[in-house]
UniProtKB/TrEMBL annotation:
<feature type="domain" description="Chorismate-utilising enzyme C-terminal">
    <location>
        <begin position="207"/>
        <end position="443"/>
    </location>
</feature>
<dbReference type="InterPro" id="IPR015890">
    <property type="entry name" value="Chorismate_C"/>
</dbReference>
<keyword id="KW-0413">Isomerase</keyword>
<dbReference type="InterPro" id="IPR005801">
    <property type="entry name" value="ADC_synthase"/>
</dbReference>
<dbReference type="Pfam" id="PF00425">
    <property type="entry name" value="Chorismate_bind"/>
</dbReference>
<dbReference type="GO" id="GO:0008909">
    <property type="term" value="F:isochorismate synthase activity"/>
</dbReference>
<protein>
    <recommendedName>
        <fullName>isochorismate synthase</fullName>
        <ecNumber>5.4.4.2</ecNumber>
    </recommendedName>
</protein>
<dbReference type="InterPro" id="IPR004561">
    <property type="entry name" value="IsoChor_synthase"/>
</dbReference>
<comment type="similarity">
    <text>Belongs to the isochorismate synthase family.</text>
</comment>
Length: 454
């Protein structure tokens, strides 16, 4: 049974969770061995072991965390959604008893979380605590069980069921069709003030002149049969191994952008802004991408994204450093301009990964620049509720560690056979509306392909 709590329910009477993590890759098949037909050796084999719904996932290449069953769910809305969820999680972790023989990133008590982009959203932000977690990192495989005090643990025996590819999907426009969205892009680009060719972007300036706004659009995909989410995740993981493939509360996708990673007080982040659309093959198109992304529009857009992260990360962490020059990140559908950043949490910091995500969200990659003025305009100008698209999605543990991606290249399951896809683009004063439409089409492609549409 799934129980969804408000954050105040949790803070008033935190449930006592019993947590146990143990390796399962050195256990002989027999009583207590969780797999009916041997240890899974790939992400696809692991996905085949899952029930067709009610699971969560955060996987990159061959490492990651897959949760199934539900011990509890916590929801929050509004501008305090981050603080409330974080407080509730701290109450849970304080009350928990944990046995962790694994001691790897993601073992022990953990939760998945997905947070709405805007405080105005009518969509819940959620923490999801699974009953079981299968983890794989550094070639080791473990299982965690998380149960409420008094509940009887029922060790699972997982049976393999082949993934069912989606074959009958069709798509239709969401809140705005592509030509109305192009009109909106044209209107927004007129509202923006360009920076000069040689102007430096100062992260700490108080200048509130509006420079960049990110606009999103949606698309509805419906299938005759239920969507086998496991198959969608398998396709995404295979085609985008360098991205973080996720499913949290039906928000499914594969993001190239790590908002924040925290591991033992070290903070990392990957900032993307500037997009080249791949026509055929990313490798042979790298020179063309380099040329486009080093031109004024995209390089300024990238500078805004870095400045916004530097400013917000400096408010919670020390020694913030960012790559001196962006590098190209080639993916099957697009090539991005990317910069990696790192920082350290001060020794007396009691902030967890969700708190750090809250401090940096929304970056200029999904809101605009400067942050405050851009965000107010996004809420006002976009006809759609972004829900959890472009918000932080990921996981965290009881020690403050965790990883939150920006929920991009994704869709929200609205029913067993219906999913709403989202894609956005950074609008600059010199944006060409049709080129921005084409960019969003390229950003829809990973989900469309995984749903059998392209
Ligand atoms: C908003 C999205 O992507 C963001 C916008 C980018 C851009 O405008 O160049 C690039 C990567 C992301 O930071 C999206 O994928 O929906």
């Amino acid at each position: 049974m799934t129980t969804t709590f408000s954050t105040s329910d949790i803070c008033t009477a935190p449930p006592r969770l019993h947590v146990s993590s143990r390796f399962v890759d050195d256990v002989e098949p027999g009583p207590g061995f969780p797999f009916e037909s041997g240890l899974p050796t790939s992400v696809e084999e692991t996905l085949e072991l899952l029930p067709t719904s009610a699971f969560s996932c955060w996987v990159r290449d061959t490492s990651g965390l897959i949760g199934f069953g539900r011990t509890l769910r916590i929801r929050a809305r509004g501008s305090d959604r981050f603080t409330e969820l974080s407080k509730a999680w701290k109450a849970i972790t304080d009350a928990a008893s944990i046995e962790d023989e694994v001691d790897l990133l993601g073992s022990g008590l953990m939760c998945f979380a997905t947070v709405a982009y805007s405080g105005e959203s009518e969509v819940d932000s959620l923490i999801h605590v699974p009953e079981f977690v299968l983890g794989r990192r550094g070639g080791r495989v473990w299982m965690t069980s998380i149960i409420t005090e008094g509940a009887t643990p029922v060790p699972p025996v997982l049976k393999s069921e082949p993934l069912r590819r989606v074959t009958s999907a069709t798509s239709s426009p969401g809140d705005l069709d592509s030509s109305s969205w192009a009109d909106l892009v044209a209107k927004v680009s007129q509202m923006l003030t360009p920076v000069g060719d040689s102007a430096e972007v100062d992260p700490f300036t108080e200048d509130s002149t509006l420079r960049k706004i990110v606009l999103a659009r949606d698309e509805l995909v419906t299938s005759d049969d239920d969507i086998d989410v496991r198959s969608v995740l398998g396709e995404l993981n295979r085609s985008y191994p360098s991205c973080w493939t996720f499913d949290v509360a039906g928000l499914i996708g594969s993001t190239p952008e790590l908002l924040i990673g925290v591991e033992n007080a070290r903070v990392t982040s990957r900032v993307l802004a500037g997009t080249y659309r791949v026509e055929n093959d990313p490798t042979s198109e790298m020179p063309a991408a380099r040329k486009l992304l080093s031109a004024h529009k995209d390089s300024t857009e990238h500078a805004f994204a870095i400045a916004s992260l530097q400013r917000s990360l400096s408010s919670v962490a020390d020694d913030v450093s960012v790559d001196e020059r962006p590098h190209l990140l080639p993916l099957a559908n697009v090539i991005h301009s990317a910069s990696d950043a790192s920082a350290h949490l001060p020794e007396d910091s009691c902030l967890n990964a969700l708190d750090i995500a809250a401090a940096v969200h929304p970056t200029a990659a999904v809101g605009g620049y400067p942050q405050a003025s851009a965000v107010a305009h996004v809420d006002e100008l976009e006809p759609l509720d972004r829900g959890r698209y472009s918000g932080p999605v990921g996981w965290m543990d009881d020690r403050g560690n965790g990883q939150f991606g920006i929920a991009l290249r994704c869709g929200q399951l609205e029913d067993r056979n219906r999913i709403r896809l989202f894609a956005g683009a950074g609008i600059m004063p010199d944006s060409d509306p049709l080129a921005e439409v084409a960019e969003t089409e390229a950003k829809f492609a990973p989900m469309r392909r995984a749903l059998g549409l392209e």
